[in-house]
Amino acid sequence: MIITSSVATWKDCGSSSNYPLCVMALYHSKLRASSLKMEPFTVSYDQRSEFLKLSYLHSFQHSNVKVRHSLNPRITRTRLHEPHALVISNEHPQNADFPRNYSRKEKKPFPIPIVELRRAARERLKKSKGQPKGRVPPPKKGLIVQSLLPLAYDVFNARITLINNLRKLLKVVPVHACGWCDEIHVGLEGHPFKSCKGKRATLRNGLHQWTNAAIEDVLVPVEAYHLYDRLGKRITHEERFSILQIPAVMELCIQAGVHIPEYPTKRRRKPIIRIGKREFADADESDLPEPLLEVPLKPLLTEISISEAVAPANEEEKTLLAEETLRAWEKMRKGAKRLMQMYRVRACGYCPEVHVGPSGHKAQNCGAHKHQQRNGQHGWQSAVLDDLIPPRYVWHVPDVVGLPLRRELRNFYGQAPAVVEICFQAGAAVPDQYKSTMRLDIGIPSSVKEAEMAV
């Protein structure tokens, strides 16, 4: 059974003063809030009416439906015989399509279409004629944004907290990984879907061979070159092995101001002096006092090994750990997205390579489709959050201890990022933004015959 929001208009209630009671009676008679789990609803009505009072909403006090209202203090007179409407709309979609998996033979689209980028550039050129140059953001001048410095430390610590908590949860929540492809599954046993695209998949008829998953299967490792000077010369092909690679989120936090002694970076205290489009010189800082020894703004967390990770002792501790893990996941993603708006991150349109900096490196190590035509060079473009922190989607299991997933009912199951599914099975509540792809409010047919009857 699929429950959706609807729009209903009653014109037969008349224009008497009992109109609000009539509307609420019609609505309350069709809503079984005590037996159905429904999302919060927004009740909109004609604000010009003088008869719809908030006192008539008392019938919702014993239900699990949240009624949100907004009143305009200015009430205009209107004719009493005008029809009124009660519009009931759901704030979140009931289901949504899964993110598209791009083939290895096609290029990822630009976050903003190239036509729109060219049109915006022409508009900026027209407006800039005869006008003084606009303000340049601090990263382009070689400085760091002081207001984003605490956020960078929070993102760094959220990533460490996420890794440590996942190592503890993996000891109590079963996670399986295919030995031939990069697909994983969270549940007591692997799913039966024939979706394996690894080596010799045709001999296995597309079935997966499940093994125990590791932390690297849940959190996809995305590394980037560590830059001592983010405005310096681009990394050449000959330097690709001499420069250290670290996790891309960590490199983003370092460039945003996080101080880690193991990864030194250049900090300027004065803006650079532009000589040409790609040439600049550092400003003279001799008149400034000697720089103090850089101290971390906040204490930095450290990762723990698998042997040091202790599994939660009981269900309550497991639920609290899952909720903390989910908060760290959201904090890391939201903070990284905000940092990316100020500190540019580049991604290859053909392969998963990521570079944190104003322009990509020159290493010719792209092995994607038709890389020979590009001489192994990357097709750099602006990165999105999923390029920096790719969420590995897994099938959502509606009932962990119940019946396993059935191959014939695949279209009725939802998907969620692996971190969210692990925390959900450990007892955490699902955030609203993931409910549409997980399809939590859609009934699963009990048989194939019942599935064929669904529209």
Automatic annotation (TrEMBL):
A GO term, aspect molecular function: RNA binding
InterPro entries (UniProt xref): APO_dom
Transmembrane region(s): none
Pfam families: APO_RNA-bind
Domain APO: 177-262, 347-432
PANTHER family from the UniProt entry: EUKARYOTIC TRANSLATION INITIATION FACTOR SUI1
Listed name of the protein: APO domain-containing protein
Organism name: Populus trichocarpa (Western balsam poplar)
